């Protein structure tokens, strides 16, 4: 039907008809053919709810590929370590939780793998399955410091508590690595794993009391303890002559260099204790102390007490008047002797000795200066950590500068920091000469 | 137990780090040429200048930002910074000493007793963390003071914080916690 009010912009005629192009409505001038106006193709406005693109095009919700791979890796690590089923399940739960958290969602794949290892470590610690951080970092083939960092972050994120192991907990697992069971090696050199573990654990506990274990890596200590335990269980010449390196080759484990000094330290400690054995009259050296290890371990508490008392007596003899030893050690000794009355025949002698000493300690009342006592306590006590026994030489104290805000900084002082023009020129010349020399 | 110590514990400040700005561009080549006791590091883009009187090492950037390390007190750091600014002024730069701020203070102190670190960590989770395989000390972080304390089993402490007051407060705060977990100097039957 021709519209009456509109006119064609091209020719001005009012003869405009509805001429639809397929489904598009159009109004066309019948005289010149100009399209005056046209409708839209789809005129229905959508008034429904907004639908997102990902929701409409999604086929099926799948978990992230890296998450699946990470979980497989966690399972692998758990099976390699041969942990219990509960430990494996717990580590998988932790991994899933930590992975989804924003701290770990966008990190590198390597860090996600380390996260898997840390989850295994945390669940092992919670379920009291003894493994060390070094084992996990070895599995992951990564630096223990990085693994430790990720572990701390993970603990914070998951808000869990995982108590660390002491050396004695890990000892049994470590001892089983050594292939010196009766089947593997000749009988003179063989040792049952359980017996070896028991003696090595006792040695480590004794070492802990004498500051050998504190603050050090556990692995060299464990190796030293196993070696000494093995030697002392059957101290025949063959075993005594075998060095640490040969022992490691025998047990098919890799030798750790630091285990050597640990062995020396342990032997030194054993010598100090062995001196107190009343029925051993010969001179003790690190070489012949190994045969006495069994006796020392059996009576270690009483030997420790005797050794400490003997040390105090020797200190008193050296300096009876000035710088007396602090009351706390001697009072501790008297307390202990009172609490455990008779563990062995050796103790009876201790108590007799105690009563002689106790009247002495209250008389030494002068308090030692705090600094002096902390710095010299290495000398006063029988066992002390190496950093206290050999303290670093203190740098000569710099005189405290008296500073005031209005201090006038003298010109001459500042000039000492500035080169004269002649010196600067010489310096520049020298630099160019050096450069040319280097080029040639 | 009395929380105030009868014997005063000496806190020794070993390092104070401070920054300030000169509000002008500095030509590092000029400083390297005309200054004594300087080390020019073109690959990093800075000059290291060492002062003798307050023993201080300063890292000077061409933007005019300077970091001073090595002082043993906050006042010494300020004196050293001003001396350095005066030195740069003499070299010909229009130095305007501004925005001096002490950024970090490192102190050590020693307790008169040794500490059972495992007990200490157990009593103070999660503020304290101890990983013996990684580091022999337990780390104790005080959030509101922004201080970190590293506790060694021998009784030595290393404290870092934003200023000297915070460091002193941190030591005071941690002392009673350490006192709870102390072990006598000659242990007999107690394990590590």
What features would you describe in this structure?
The complex is a heterodimer of chains A (440) and B (192). By secondary structure, chain A is an all-alpha fold. Chain A has four domains: 2-41, Single Sheet (N-terminal domain of TfIIb), CATH 2.20.25; 65-157, Cyclin A, domain 1, CATH 1.10.472; 171-298, Cyclin A, domain 1; 318-389, no CATH class. Chain A has 22 helices and three strands. A three-stranded antiparallel sheet of chain A has the order 1-2-3, with no helix packed on it. In chain A, strand 2 and strand 3 form a beta hairpin. In chain A, helix 2 (65-81) packs across helix 5 (109-126). The longest helix of chain A is centred in the last third of the chain and has 19 residues, at 300-318. The termini of chain A are far apart. In chain A, 26% of the residues are buried. The model of chain A is unreliable at 322-372 (pLDDT under 50). Chain B has 192 residues and is an alpha+beta fold. Chain B has a ten-stranded antiparallel sheet with strand order 2-3-4-5-1-6-11-10-9-8, covered by helices on one side. In chain B, strand 3 (46-51) and strand 4 form a beta hairpin. Mean pLDDT of chain B is 88; it is low at 186-192. Chains A and B meet through helix 7, helix 9, helix 15, helix 16 and helix 19 of A and helix 2 of B.
Keywords summarizing the entry:
heterodimer; A: 440 residues; mainly alpha; N-terminal domain of TfIIb; Cyclin A, domain 1; 4 domains; three-stranded antiparallel sheet; 22 helices; 56% helix; elongated; B: 192 residues; alpha+beta; TATA-Binding Protein; 2 domains; two-stranded antiparallel ribbon; 4 helices; disordered C terminus
Question: What can be said about this structure in brief?
Answer:
The complex is a heterodimer of chains A (440) and B (192). Chain A is an all-alpha fold.
